[in-house]
Amino acid sequence: MTPAQHETLAAGRWQAFSLIEQLANVGSEVERALNWLDKRNSEYSRLAFLRALELLHLTIADPRHRHRLKELTRLREALLDFFLGDNAFNSTGKSWRSYFYGFAYAAAILRRAGQLAG
User: Fold this and answer.
1) Which residues contact residue 52 at a Cβ distance below 8 angstroms, ignoring those fewer than 6 apart?
2) What is d(CA 73, CA 21) in angstroms, rounded to the nearest whole number?
3) What is the C-alpha separation between 11 and 28, in angstroms, rounded?
4) What confidence tens digit (pLDDT) does each residue in 3-51 have?
5) 8-state DSSP, 6
6) What is the dihedral angle through the alpha carbons of 80, 85, 91, 97, rounded to the nearest 10 degrees?
């Protein structure tokens, strides 16, 4: 695996975020990867996807989410399938944007209400 791109997050700061914040951040990297795909820059897309995968791995490793492991690991499987596999799940850029939009929207609402650290 590549060296950690998010070293301060990997060092424990990631666990200070709620699940909503964590998945909103994963979604930001997925959005970047999709945008680079749209611009036909496969290398930048790959790098953004690797950052998304790293953040998702940190989320999966967060002990607070043990009861959500099935969903989180299925998310990882579907993302890997879309970006690196044969897209057996028939995902689209639009479907990934829709999936992660809810987390970004919820994080923004909670942040404005002062309920999130970030």
Assistant:
1) 26, 27, 29, 30, 32, 33, 79
2) 18
3) 20
4) 555 555 655 788 999 999 999 999 999 999 999 999 999 999 999 999 9
5) S
6) 40
